[in-house]
From TrEMBL:
The keyword Transmembrane helix applies. NCBIfam families: ATPase_P-type (TIGR01494). Its main location: membrane. It is a multi-pass membrane protein. Pfam families: Cation_ATPase (PF13246), Cation_ATPase_C (PF00689), Cation_ATPase_N (PF00690), E1-E2_ATPase (PF00122), Hydrolase_3 (PF08282). It comes from the Bacteria. It is found in: Cell membrane. This is Ca2+-transporting ATPase. The chain crosses the membrane at residues 78-109, 260-280, 286-306, 702-724, 736-761, 782-799, 811-831, 838-859, 879-896. The keyword Nucleotidyltransferase does not apply. It comes from Cellulomonas humilata. It catalyses: ATP + H2O = ADP + phosphate + H(+).
Length: 924
């Protein structure tokens, strides 16, 4: 494995370059790169031709024909091919033709869905491709990672995915997470120190960064040394390319169901053939009957319909601004029973606004909202006008964000709020930064929660070296020894600590996020040491003041939380804010009771936390380990957990969750760890996605309920006719069964697919994920509905108009065919929804769709050419009325069953509201 990209067209082996053993100057010289200006456009073109694109070449995608062959090997299609062959052998050419056409339809639809799924994954991968900040032609530009070439100069910061392998030229408190490569669970500290010219293990190459690892802290500058398949991750990609894609639990369950149905079908065929042989039936009659039974017992559209429904759901989610990484995640969404939500930008607008400030012992109220630079600073009447210069320095100099006059923000939203406050104080932040450049800097990091910059500033008529600090109040206060008490007046911090802490509590109780500001006045002699080690000077500070910042709730957030709670989904808010602040916001949202801080949480054992969890809904100041622990404990309780986040420290919990949810504006780390990406960063979109997931699962179960009822009804009807010698042992002809399965049954399926989301879908508790589609209760209902359909269709065969002397029981068989057809249509109407009545509004779309198969059944019995093809005959008025009455039996039974189901669910809710379960669980 080499560490420099070699031309993808050559096969000449070259010794690997030990980049870790070269100092930065030697490394850049070897790749002929200027760290200050980067590569020229012409040189980039040359190198791309030589090295190729910075992409991982996986196993070649299968051709369309290989996918077609795979579809043909599906057990369902194999059975249909066998039926077509037998039909052709016994002279049933039209049957063979129809079955063969059905195979073609299945293969075409299955292949199309497979190819569309691959395109969807490719599109998602493109959408989530990391963007890289690269020096080209002397300018810093942002480009897709695949455009990188060896020799590029890349700037990295916390939250970035490293886009290629490279030698680090500059670092500032930089750490990367390399578990995917080295197995090291903790982040690796990075620096630029040259290592020995030996075979240094991968995990010890501290001056190198590797593709697809994540920057968890600090910043750095990297010289790209390897791209594409020549990177360390490229070697892993080579191994992964041979790994087979596994099927989802839903697909595995459907595969098992298909195999069971195959056994049922061929067992029924075998029983009927044995009975026919005993009775001395001719081989051609036996094959004719066996063909009809086989066709009736094969759920031809089951796999294709489920895959189509999942794809349809994925498209619906994408339209709703929620992109799933895998089609099967659509089904998992519907089972969500708990949501752990980030606050900032998800439940709130992420438009930070300073509404209060405190300095030199005085309170001030700030007018205005959002990023508009208009608004007044209000104070108590009669108070002296304070000198806010020390605070203004901190607002504009210890931050990097910019806010245009139109309100466009570049940078951190909290810093943008500070820039807006500075503007309200009459301070131009950008002009101030140009006038007073930084002498030294301690970048903000979540590990120490502050930022410090040093400048030469005018201070009371003199030019002074001043360090300005902003950060969390607790950490800033720990580094302060004095406090600003008036113009040029400082006092020991202890003299004002009680007032400061009381103000912090007051602001927190209002749901405001607080930031503290401090300064330190240095001497010219301190400059050299300050530049060399700026962190060591963030001590002995003078406390300047506090600001209270609010991030307004999204207008839809409170309603979305109400919908989720009504749907039996627990919602918990997890934030970096103090627990008191977070609790105030939780109350505004209508979350459940209880707030806890990270340190308190860490002190609890797993047993204690599980005991308290039902009464804890707000978590403040939590660590990434706390978030991961919460998800794991909730999953052990059997909950299906959705976890939202946008920052690097959310990634572990997001990956662990059943539905990890990343924000579209979040870090690449969280997007790649997630199963769902919300492109609008909106909590209400997640709740809507859960609703769509429930709807899709409901449609899948409705289809299977309809399909299995019809299948059981047909198979039992054929077995009963053969065993009891009803209608000479032949309940229907193969063409009748084909007509029902292929022409009639397709319309109820369409009605199920187009059925709008039921109004009560978010009024019930989440389904139990352990309760599969083919659970005991569901199977019993399939059998019940199938038997009702069988009995209603068998009545004309037993007591129909044909006499025993008739050569062909055409009228009786026709009536059985009509009852089965109309019964299937009406069952599609009532079984499309559960536990709601299938006769509840809206009905118009379903009625329009289902009118078509009713017309087809009528034509099949009245048109001459269809009579000859299907072996049917015209029916009289009374016979039609009898058929309609018998066809109504199944929908009547189904509706009564659903009334009982709703009653039991309501009874359970009254008896024990806290333990309320879904209607499906109530009957299991």
């Amino acid at each position: 494995m080499t560490d420099i990209a070699e031309p993808q067209t050559t096969t000449i082996a070259t010794p690997p370059t030990r980049w870790w053993a070269l100092d930065p100057e030697a490394a850049t010289a070897q790749l002929d790169t200027d760290p200050a200006t980067g590569l020229s456009s012409a040189e980039v073109t040359t190198r791309r031709e030589r090295y190729g694109s910075n992409t991982l070449t996986a196993q070649a995608a299968p051709s369309v024909w290989s996918v077609v062959f795979q579809q043909l090997r599906d057990p369902m299609n194999i059975m249909l091919i066998a039926v077509a062959a037998v039909s052709a052998a016994i002279g049933q050419g039209s049957t063979a033709l129809i079955v063969g056409f059905l195979v073609v339809i299945n293969v075409v639809i299955g292949t199309r869905q497979e190819m569309l799924a691959r395109k969807s994954v490719d599109a998602l991968a493109t959408m989530q491709e990391p963007q890289s900040r690269v020096r080209r032609d002397g300018a810093l530009v942002q480009i897709p990672a695949h455009d990188l070439v060896p020799g590029d100069i890349v700037e990295l910061e916390a939250g970035d995915i490293v886009p290629a392998d490279g030698r680090l030229l500059r670092t500032a408190t930089m750490e990367t997470q390399e578990a995917a490569l080295t197995g090291e669970s903790t982040p690796i500290g990075k620096d630029v120190i040259t290592l020995a010219d030996d075979e240094v293990p991968l995990g010890d190459r501290a001056n190198m960064a590797f593709q697809n690892t994540s920057v968890t802290r600090g910043t750095g500058t990297m010289l790209v040394t390897a791209t594409g398949m020549t990177t360390q991750i490229g070697n892993i990609a080579t191994l992964l390319s041979s790994v087979e894609k596994t099927k989802s639990p839903l697909q595995q369950e459907l595969d098992k169901l298909t195999k069971v149905l195959g056994v049922i079908a061929w067992t029924a065929v075998a029983v009927i053939v044995v009975i026919g042989i005993v009775r001395g039936q001719s081989p051609s009659d036996l094959l004719f009957l066996a063909t009809a039974v086989a066709i009736s017992a094969i759920p031809t559209g089951l796999p294709t319909f489920v895959q189509a429904m999942l794809a349809y759901g994925a498209r619906q989610l994408a339209d709703a601004k929620a992109v799933v990484a895998n089609l099967n995640d659509v089904e998992t969404l519907g089972a969500t029973s708990s949501i752990n939500s980030d606050k900032t930008g998800t439940l709130t607008l992420n438009e930070m606004t300073v509404t209060a400030l405190y300095t030199i012992g005085q309170h001030f109220t700030v007018e205005g909202s959002g990023y508009a630079k208009s608004g007044k600073i209000l104070q108590t009447a009669g108070a002296d006008v304070p000198d806010l210069t020390p605070l203004a320095y901190g607002l504009c100099l210890a931050s990097d964000a910019t806010v245009s006059d139109s309100g466009a923000v570049i940078g951190d939203p909290t810093e943008a709020a500070l820039v807006v406050l500075a503007a309200k104080l009459g301070i131009d932040a950008e002009e101030s930064r140009r006038t007073y450049p930084r002498v030294a800097e301690v970048p903000f990091d979540s590990a120490y929660k502050f930022m410090a910059t040093a400048h030469w500033l005018p201070w009371r008529g003199d030019r002074s070296l001043v360090e300005v600090v902003k950060g969390g109040p607790d950490v800033v206060l720990q580094r302060c020894t004095h406090a600003l008490a008036g113009p040029g007046q400082t006092v020991p911090l202890e003299d004002m600590r009680a007032d400061i802490e009381a103000e912090m509590e007051r602001l927190a109780e209002q749901g405001l996020r607080t930031l503290a500001f401090a300064t330190r006045f240095l001497t010219p002699a301190d400059e050299a040491a300050l530049v060399a080690d700026p962190m060591s000077y963030v001590e002995e500070l003078v406390f300047v003041g506090l600001v209270g910042i609010v991030d307004p709730l999204r207008p839809t957030a409170k309603v979305a939380v109400e919908i989720a709670l009504k749907a039996g989904i627990e919602v918990r808010m997890i934030t970096g804010d103090h627990a008191v602040t977070a609790s105030a916001i939780g109350r505004q949202l209508g979350l459940g009771p209880g707030a806890i801080s990270g340190p308190e949480l860490a002190a609890l054992t797993d047993e204690e936390l599980l005991e308290r969890l039902p009464n804890l809904h707000v978590f403040g100041r939590v660590t990434p380990e706390d978030k991961l622990r919460l998800v794991q404990l909730m999953q052990k309780q059997g909950l299906v957990v959705a976890m939202t986040g946008d920052a690097v420290n959310d990634a572990a919990a997001i990956k662990q969750a059943d539905i990890g949810v990343a924000m579209g504006s979040g870090s690449e780390v969280t997007k790649q760890a997630a199963r769902l990406v919300l492109t609008d960063d909106n909590f209400s979109t997640l709740v809507h996605a859960v609703e769509l997931g429930r709807s899709i699962y409901q449609k899948i179960t409705a289809y299977i309920r309809f399909q299995m009822s019809q299948l059981i009804g047909l198979v039992v009807l054929f077995l009963a006719a053969s065993i009891f010698d009803i209608a000479d042992g032949v309940a229907m002809t193969p063409m009748m069964v084909l007509f029902l399965n292929f022409f009639v049954a397709v319309f109820p399926v369409i009605a199920i697919m187009l059925d709008p989301v039921g109004p009560g879908i978010m009024d019930r508790m989440p389904r139990d994920p352990k309760l599969g589609i083919s659970n005991g209760y569901a199977v019993r209902r399939w059998i019940l509905y199938g038997m009702v359909l069988c009995i209603s269709s068998a009545i004309p065969l037993v007591a129909g108009p044909d006499t025993p002397a008739a050569d062909t029981p055409t009228a009786s068989m026709t009536m059985a065919f009509v009852v089965m057809g109309l019964g299937s249509v009406l069952s599609g109407l009532v079984l499309r929804r559960e536990p709601e009545s299938g006769l509840a509004a809206p009905l118009l779309t379903a009625v329009k769709v289902l009118s078509a198969p009713v017309i087809l059944v009528v034509l099949a019995t009245e048109l001459d050419f269809l009579q000859g093809w299907l072996t049917t005959q015209s029916l009289s008025g009374p016979q039609w009325l009898a058929c309609l009455g018998l066809a109504l039996l199944l929908p009547i039974v189904a509706e009564i069953d659903k009334v009982i189901m709703r009653h039991r669910a309501a009874t359970q809710l009254v008896l024990d509201p806290k333990e309320a379960v879904s209607p499906a669980r109530a009957r299991s």
